[in-house]
Design goal:
It is built from 1 helix and 10 strands. The chain has one helix spanning 83-96; strands at residues 3-7, 9-13, 16-20, 30-36, 39-44, 46-52, 55-60, 64-69, 74-79, 102-104.
Length: 107
């Protein structure tokens, strides 16, 4: 099931990153990620959707990040916060995920 939401908050601290639309209206959505041993844990919307190394590819655009999962689903996180917060989030994605699976804008 593809998921696409506008993130109103995001962050990355001590190896753990995430974004959500908690400050917006409508159904709540989030992503959470961080290193877990030799892999990367990734979760969206509920722990039932969490697991290590389930992200196959990440594409960073200036206004969104698309996480492509191994099960072929995609999670799109769209920017609706300051450039500084977004840049920190992108830096966190680049820090957590292996460089071989991350492509896109350099912000």
């Amino acid at each position: 099931m593809p998921l696409d939401f506008v993130a109103t908050e995001c962050g990355f601290d001590n190896g753990l990153g995430g974004a959500s639309n908690a400050a917006g209206t409508g159904p709540s959505h989030y992503v959470l990620f961080g290193r877990d041993g030799d892999g990367v844990y990734f979760e969206y919307d509920d722990q039932i959707h969490g697991g290590v190394d389930q992200v196959a590819h990440v594409v960073i655009h200036l206004d969104r990040i698309v996480f492509s999962l191994r099960d072929k689903d995609t999670i799109t996180v769209r920017k609706e916060m300051s450039d500084t917060e977004w840049s920190e989030f992108i830096a966190g994605v680049r820090d957590a995920f292996p460089p071989a699976i991350v492509a896109g804008a350099a912000n």
